[in-house]
Design brief:
It is built from 7 helices and 8 strands. The protein is an alpha/beta fold. The protein has a single domain, classed as Spore Coat Polysaccharide Biosynthesis Protein SpsA, Chain A, CATH 3.90.550. The strands form 2 sheets. It has a 6-stranded mixed sheet. The protein is globular and about 45 Å long.
């Protein structure tokens, strides 16, 4: 089964009108190294022009990642389809101190249009580049004894991807955090789209799996919804 993972690394957004987490450069990098171990057919990682050279040098030359498996694509978040509308709605000064980028969240479906032959794949995944970290997974699943062990989780294996593929079938699969307590925001996902996978009492952060035949229609629905805001 051909699978493609789509993700993004924009580590310089904190303090800007876009908003983003501070000091996440190597968190996202080591986490993605861990996620790559599920061995998908292809991984596309969107990033900024200013980050591209350093990311390619670190992944391909330092870590030895196969260029045929991982590809970086430059995308200017200020050219997002709904950027102007988002700017009018959000409190920009507050966003400068916030740890979330709305533009990244809204582009998760629309980046598909920028990927060649995306519909040649049987499964299309959105995976948060920072998913593999010790805040979600108990210490027993971490690898190594260096500081980056907090982002190297041994649960990311080809067998895990096989399970995701089997669980999706022709359905949309959302792996999300616990809906209780401080994770209440997860309730914004319509219940009919949710399958919560809980194994070993571990709650995954964000992984959205969309079967190929579902993607186009869902994306058009989202465009209509965003356009009517």
């Amino acid at each position: 089964m051909k699978t493609i993972l789509i993700t993004a690394i924009y580590a310089n957004l904190h303090g800007t009108d876009l908003g983003g987490r501070v000091s996440r450069h190597y968190w996202y990098r080591w986490s993605l190294i861990s996620i790559l171990k599920v061995n998908p057919t292809k991984v596309i990682c969107f990033t900024s022009e200013e980050e591209l050279e350093d990311l390619e040098q670190w992944f391909f030359e330092v870590q030895g990642v196969d260029r045929n498996q991982l590809e970086f694509k430059v995308f200017n978040l200020r050219e997002s389809k709904f950027y102007n509308k988002i700017q009018r709605i959000k409190d920009v000064e507050y966003v400068k101190t916030w740890d979330r980028c709305v533009e990244i969240q809204y582009n998760k479906f629309f980046w598909y249009d920028l990927i060649d032959n995306v519909y040649d794949y049987d499964r299309i995944y959105w995976v948060d580049a920072g998913l593999s970290h010790g805040g979600l997974f108990p210490e027993e699943f971490r690898m190594g004894d260096k500081w980056e062990k907090d982002f190297l989780i041994n649960l990311f294996t080809p067998e895990l991807l096989d399970k995701w593929n089997k669980d999706t079938a022709d359905k949309i699969l959302v792996l999300a955090k616990n809906n209780k307590g401080r994770y209440f925001w997860a309730n914004t996902i319509p219940e009919k789209y949710i399958i919560i996978m809980i194994e070993l009492n571990i709650l995954s952060e964000v992984c959205l799996v969309v079967p190929r035949k579902t993607t186009s229609g869902l994306r058009e629905t989202l465009k209509d919804s965003y356009g009517s805001c």
